[in-house]
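Worked example

This section walks through a single chain of length 87. The input is the sequence exactly as stored; nothing has been trimmed or padded.
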Amino acid sequence: MDYTNIIHTIVDPFIEDKDAIMVREMPTKSDKDITLMIVANNADTARMIGKKGAIANALREVISVAGKINNKRIHIQFDSYDEEVEE
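Given that input, the structure is written out below as tokens.
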């Protein structure tokens, strides 16, 4: 199953910079686990997480249901491209 496509279908409508979002599968120790890293700029990462993590939790729930079809446990992590510049 293409979990990356599912994530893009869900988050692309409310992301400002659609070209900057990257979804990558990270290595795991178990064949049943899949970890997906979603990386975007700071503002878009904040939108994907939402207030009190509401959107992130909903996204994890949807992907979890999709993973259960293939007997997989899907984990989602968020990161940002932007780095703080110290002066």
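What to look for: The chain is about 40% helix and 25% strand.
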